[in-house]
Specification:
The complex is a heterodimer. By secondary structure, chain A is mainly α. Chain A folds into two domains: about 55 residues; about 230 residues, MetI-like fold (Orthogonal Bundle), CATH 1.10.3720.10. In chain A, about 70% of the residues lie in helices and about 0% in strands. Chain A contains 13 helices and no strands. In chain A, helix 1 packs antiparallel against helix 13, helix 4 crosses helix 7 and helix 8 runs antiparallel to helix 9. Chain B is α/β, with parallel strands linked by helices. Chain B folds into two domains: about 190 residues, Periplasmic binding protein-like II (D-Maltodextrin-Binding Protein, domain 2), CATH 3.40.190; about 240 residues, D-Maltodextrin-Binding Protein, domain 2 (3-Layer(aba) Sandwich). Chain B is about 40% helix and about 15% strand. Chain B is built from 20 helices and 17 strands. In chain B, the strands form six sheets. Chain B has a five-stranded mixed sheet. In chain B, strands 8-11-7-12 form a four-stranded mixed sheet. In chain B, a hairpin with a 5-residue loop joins strand 15 and strand 16. Chain B is globular. Classes of the chains: A mainly alpha, B alpha/beta. At the A-B interface, helix 2, helix 6, helix 11 and helix 12 of A face strand 2, helix 3, helix 11, helix 12 and helix 16 of B.
Chain lengths: ~290, ~475
């Protein structure tokens, strides 16, 4: 199809806008990575923009050697993997049930989910509740409270509802149980929305630090996000002789190195999920 | 299926029995909540020594912040020891969450009472002692002062032996800098210190003590006076305002942080900077500029030839035992063991010949790289209960990790000459005046505004506000406390 002149201009303008938006997101990250790999002199003098100046890996080595990075990385991997898997199972089962027109009391249950989405318990009751379950200072305290997400449940419910009824009916006629129908019919055609939920949930678990800030005091249980918070907090406090580990290493290099090393694992898996992600965010937005 | 369920039940029962067996063990484990650390502290030599000398097994946990502390306290968790900043100590006191440890100290704390010589008033309320006070690590030293690029000053005739000691010469030096280096800021400073309008070197000429950790109060004729009521304040502000109007002082001063001022100094954009001994990144400067030399500028003299400065003093942190502690007696015994002279030395500096050496004059020297590698965070294990009589000396060994920083620290300390005064309120308890921080912020903001473009009326306005909103109560509280406890 041949585009008119006006359409061509429109397409070019859209592309330019998309490139600008992409750069706005990408350049700060590039700046962080470059600073973390530059010399203190270059960072102090603001010479670093989008490329490392006087290449130097001291910041990364400092984080690797002097902080409990590896232990925290392991904690974050455990929390993210188990949290995402369990949360996904719960979200799929709940969404499937709520999407099913035959479920009795579906409306009431949906309202309850909406209620939970709008109102939360507040910090103090939550803390006492978790304490009474002996969950404080365990990795479970960083996994369990966030397992059920009403928002993702509704997103997936929308995805399930967009699957034609005839598919499910055919499966039922062939003698499939509800579980078999879900596993063999519904889930394969909902891969994109599930992948989206996986990414959202995994990123949320990976980045969550406030729970750890309140519920964790054991150093060996800190997730990466809390370690990042602490490194940046210490870097912002005036450096005293007691806190000087890497001589000649600027606080900004420590902070940027820690930020980069925290987001790196997520950045590494992102490209593999991207193709599902783009499809998934569109689920439910267009019907017909 | 039934077999599987039976197996699971057996496993659960076995697990619960084993858990019961563990909890039945009567070995006492003390739970210490200590300050934030990003390193794995179990690898530090200090941890190993504490395990050996404390007499009890100690489980160290990290306090992430005030919010978490308040949750821990309100939920009554049985920590045996908490490391507290000044603000958190005051919060815990107002919640009545700390135990009176005076009897425990008398019975089991002989090393503790021997090690703390002057700091007890800071933790004593109505005769009860509510924490172990920990000395600020660098007592007697100057926290903030002016440091100059001596290589640049040499080139315009302001050599080390000719550096200004009075306000007229100081102004002339800044004018010379402006003329010789038009692209550079003669003097940069920030809004980041306790009393940002006060620059210690200049305030000295007006009899105002600054540069320490509690700059707002000083003794005048035996009375505690807030800076807003200092009789020389107007003269000081007028002088610094003149420097600002002549573009000798950084125009961005009221809006910038210490790190911004430091970056200007490192980036060759400022000749003189107001900062702390650890904030100048001097090693980077030497790497960057071929003829680099730095000087800590002298404090300017008053009309009688005297200098004035406030030196570091008081309590750096507090070690408290919560009322919910399960083992207060054992905790005091453990701390007492750790504060024993030799144990405290070993925790702080390590093993002689391995981590440190001692010369004939009794000075300690770090052995590198062992000291930096194995003793890097040893201080955290005794944080909240440093020996007041010796820890500042041990602390200075930690400075040796960086030669330039150490040189700057000693030069700033020496620049005080005999004009160093300790804050009269350094050991005072919480004032109980609710709007204290608002009052002090108002004074700071107005003084900065008066210097940086505003009129001198701002000073009067701040003074009126201070007196109309309870500032007098605050000063009276400190004055009364000082006269009752420190004279």
């Amino acid at each position: 199809m041949k585009l008119s002149r006006g359409e061509k201009v429109y397409v070019v303008a859209l592309n330019i806008l998309a490139v600008i938006c992409g750069l706005v997101c990408l350049l700060p990250v590039l700046n962080l990575i470059s600073k973390s790999l530059s010399s203190p002199k270059a960072v102090y003098n603001n010479w670093v923009i989008f490329w490392p100046v006087e290449f130097n890996t001291a910041g990364w080595s400092y984080i690797w050697v002097y902080t409990s990075y590896l232990r925290s990385l392991l904690n974050s991997v455990i929390i993210t993997l188990s949290g995402t898997v369990i949360s996904l199972v719960i979200t799929i089962l709940t969404s499937y049930a709520l999407a099913h027109p035959k479920l009795k009391g579906r409306k009431l249950l949906t309202y309850l989910y909406v209620f939970a989405m709008v109102f939360s318990a507040g910090t103090l009751p939550m803390y006492f509740q978790l304490k009474s379950y002996n969950l404080l200072n365990t990795l479970w305290v960083l996994i369990l409270p966030s397992l059920v997400s009403p928002y993702y449940t509704f997103v997936l419910k929308g995805g399930f509802e967009s699957v034609p009824d005839s598919l499910e009916e055919a499966a039922r006629i062939d003698g499939a149980s509800y579980t078999r129908t879900l596993v063999s019919v519904i889930l394969p055609v909902s891969k994109a929305s599930i992948a989206t939920i996986v990414i959202f949930t995994a990123v949320a678990y990976w980045n969550r630090y406030f729970d750890a800030l309140l519920y964790i005091t054991k150093q060996q249980l800190k997730p990466l996000s809390l370690l990042l918070y602490e490194v940046i907090k210490l870097a912002n406090i005036e450096q005293t002789a007691d806190e000087i580990y890497g001589q000649g290493l600027s606080q900004e290099i420590k902070s940027t190195s820690m930020v980069v090393m925290t987001i790196l694992p997520m950045l590494a898996i992102y490209p593999f999920m991207q193709r599902y992600f783009v499809k998934g965010v569109m689920v439910g937005s267009v019907k017909g | 299926m039934k077999k599987l369920i039976s197996l699971l039940l057996v496993a659960v029962m076995a697990l619960s029995l084993s858990l019961t067996a563990v909890s039945a063990d009567d070995e006492i484990v003390l739970k210490f909540l200590i300050s934030t650390s990003t390193t794995d502290f179990t690898k530090d030599h200090g941890y190993e020594v504490c395990e050996r000398v404390a007499g009890y097994k100690i489980e160290y946990e990290i306090l992430n912040g005030t919010e978490q502390l308040m949750l821990i306290i309100s939920s009554g968790q049985p920590y045996d020891y908490v490391y507290l900043s000044g603000a958190n100590f005051r919060k815990m006191m107002s919640e009545e969450a700390l135990m009176d440890i005076s009897d425990l100290l008398a019975e089991y704390g002989n090393n503790i009472t021997e090690a703390i010589t002057t700091l007890w008033p800071a933790v004593t309320v109505d005769g009860g002692i509510y924490a172990i006070p920990s000395t600020a690590a660098q007592p007697g030293s100057l926290r903030y002062s002016l440091v100059a690029r001596q290589d640049l000053l040499d080139a315009i005739g302001w050599t080390v032996d000719k550096l200004p000691t009075n306000t007229a010469d100081f102004k002339q030096m800044l004018l010379d800098i402006k003329a010789a280096y038009p692209d550079m800021i003669p003097l940069t400073a920030s809004n980041d210190t306790a009393t940002p309008a006060l620059i210690s070197n200049i305030a000295s000429a007006f009899g105002i003590c600054a540069g320490g950790n509690q700059q707002a109060y000083q003794l005048i004729d035996g009375n505690v006076v807030n800076v807003i009521d200092n009789p020389n304040l107007e003269a000081y502000i007028a002088y610094v305002k003149e420097l600002y109007d002549l573009e000798l002082l950084d125009a961005e001063m009221p809006a910038q942080k210490l790190a911004d001022a430091r970056n200007k100094w490192i980036g060759n954009k400022a000749v003189i900077s107001y900062n702390s001994w650890n904030g100048f990144a001097i090693d980077t400067m030497y790497e960057q500029y071929e003829n680099m030399a730095f000087t800590v500028l002298p404090l300017l003299q008053d009309e009688n030839g005297n200098v004035h400065a406030q030196v570091y003093s008081g309590v750096g942190a507090y070690g408290g035992i919560p009322v919910t502690a399960e083992h207060p007696v054992e905790t005091i015994k453990a701390i007492n063991n750790m504060m024993e002279w030799n144990n405290h030395l070993e925790i702080s500096l390590g093993e002689e010949g391995v981590h440190y050496t001692k010369d004939e004059e009794g000075r300690f020297w770090a052995v590198q790289p062992a000291f930096s590698e194995q003793k890097n965070i040893s201080n955290v294990f005794i944080a909240g209960f440093y020996r007041e009589d010796i820890y500042p000396t041990y602390w200075e060994v930690r400075l040796q990790k960086n030669q330039y920083m150490m040189d700057c620290f000693y030069a700033q300390k020496a620049s005080v000459l005999d004009g160093g005064e300790r804050s009269p309120v350094a050991l005072a308890p919480a004032s109980g005046v609710d709007n204290q921080s608002t009052l002090e912020a108002k004074v700071n903001d107005n003084l900065l505004a008066a210097i940086c473009g505003g009129s001198m009326d701002k000073v009067t306005e701040a003074r009126n506000y201070w007196h109309a909103n309870g500032g007098e109560d605050l000063t009276n509280f400190y004055d009364t406390w000082y006269k009752a406890n420190m004279k």
